[in-house]
Amino acid sequence: PETPARQNARSKSGRFRIGTVGRLSHEKGMDMLIEAFALVKAQLPQAELVLVGDGAERPRLEGMVAERGLTDSVCFLGIRDDVPALLAGFDIFVLPSRSEGLPLVILEAMAAGLPIVATDVGGVSEAVRDGENGLLIRPESSRVMADAIIKLAENEDMRNSLGQASRSSFNERFELSLMVNSYGKIMDIQ
């Protein structure tokens, strides 16, 4: 089942929220997400894209949104200090990066119990396991990204299952006390 926060967020807006958090820069792939969203929107008119973050690419990305006629469906929220509350309002979290290490925002999305669509770059696959707690896709493909988003949007059972697995994975592998203990063991070895 969905968390009450997600149910409330969706019932207030009546829209299906796809969201991301990150710097608006080339390596973060927000342009690919906007391209993917244009494809998603053609099939899911109730979809809304929420971009949390800011950066040098913002004017170009806003231009892309306007050119595609998506201004009413894409929200640029800028830098925020209430990310956990915003994540609670997303139906799907997307990480469209071209390059990454192990992004903390993936862990935040997992802790929020969100189903995740993420590009398989850097250390992302250390947290997101394809088909278990999210969907991993190849980078640089807006069509593949759109297909993964649509697949989750159209399958509530899959969204709920991946979201629950996401939260469980976070609790089992990345919760703070577990990580502190793991680092402690590594330090003792050296």
In short, what is this structure?
By secondary structure, the protein is of the alpha/beta class.
Features:
six-stranded parallel beta sheet, disordered N terminus
Report on the structure:
- The chain has about 190 residues and is of the alpha/beta class.
- The protein contains nine helices and six strands; from the N terminus they run αβαβαβαβαβαβααα.
- The chain has helices spanning about 5-15, 30-45, 60-65, 85-90, 105-110, 125, 140-155, 155-175, 175-190, and strands at about 15-20, 45-50, 75-80, 90-95, 115-120, 135.
- Helix 6 links the parallel strand 5 and strand 6.
- The chain starts with a helix and ends with a helix.
Judged by helices, strands and strand pairing, the structural class is alpha/beta
Distance between the termini: 44 Å
Flag low-confidence runs.
1-12
What global shape is seen? globular
Q: Describe the sheet with the most strands.
A: 6 strands, parallel
Roughly how many Å is the radius of gyration? Answer: 16 Å
Percent of residues in helical segments? 40-55%
Query: What is the chain-wise order of helices and strands?
Result: HEHEHEHEHEHEHHH
Q: Which strand order does the major sheet show?
A: 3-2-1-4-5-6
Number of H/I helices: 9
Mean pLDDT: 88
Q: β content, as a range?
A: 15-25%
Number of strands: 6
